[in-house]
Write a structure and sequence with these properties.
Residues 28-113 form the Ig-like domain. Keywords: Immunity, Signal. This is Ig-like domain-containing protein. One of its GO terms (cellular component) is plasma membrane. The protein is mainly beta. The chain has one domain: Immunoglobulin-like (Sandwich), CATH 2.60.40. 4% of the residues lie in helices and 54% in strands. The strands form 2 sheets. The protein has a 6-stranded mixed beta sheet with strand order 3-1-10-5-6-7, with no helix packed on it. A hairpin with a 4-residue loop joins strand 6 and strand 7. Residues 9-17 have low confidence and may be disordered.
C-alpha cells in the first residue's frame, strides 16, 4: 500500500511579508521514513510549527513546534515524527515509519512566538 502526504503552508504574525516554499504531494511506500521540508524567507519568525489535517475533516492537529535549537512534540507525535531545523527559515518534518494512518495534508507555519 501507498501513503499519500501533502504539504501546505501557513504563517502567523506578518503573513503578507512571508513567502513559503513547499514540496509537491508525495506518495510513498509504507514502513519507510519520509521527509517533508519547509522553507520561508523571514528570519524574524524563529518558530516553526507543523500540523496534520486528516481527510474529511476541517480541523488540524498540532504535531509539534520548535526553534533552531529545540523541538517540542504534542502527545504521542514524538514517537512517530521527527522535527529538525537547518536554520531560522528552513525545517523538516520526518515521518519515521510511514503507514496509511499518516495519510494527510501537512502544514508548516512560522511564528514570532
Amino acid at each position: 500500500r501507498r501513503v499519500r502526504l501533502f504539504q501546505r503552508t501557513r504563517c502567523y504574525n506578518a503573513c503578507l511579508a512571508v513567502t513559503f516554499h513547499h514540496n509537491s504531494p508525495l506518495i510513498v511506500a509504507e514502513n519507510r521514513p519520509v521527509q517533508i521540508t519547509c522553507r520561508h524567507d523571514d528570519s524574524t519568525l524563529p518558530q516553526m510549527l507543523w500540523y496534520q489535517q486528516k481527510q474529511d475533516t476541517n480541523s488540524m492537529t498540532l504535531i509539534g513546534y520548535g526553534y533552531e535549537t529545540s523541538q517540542n512534540y504534542e502527545g504521542q507525535f514524538g514517537k512517530q515524527f521527527k522535527l529538525t531545523r537547518k536554520s531560522a527559515v528552513e525545517g523538516a518534518l520526518t515521518v519515521l515509519k510511514a503507514n496509511v494512518s499518516h495519510s494527510a495534508v501537512y502544514f508548516c507555519a512560522a511564528s514570532t512566538q
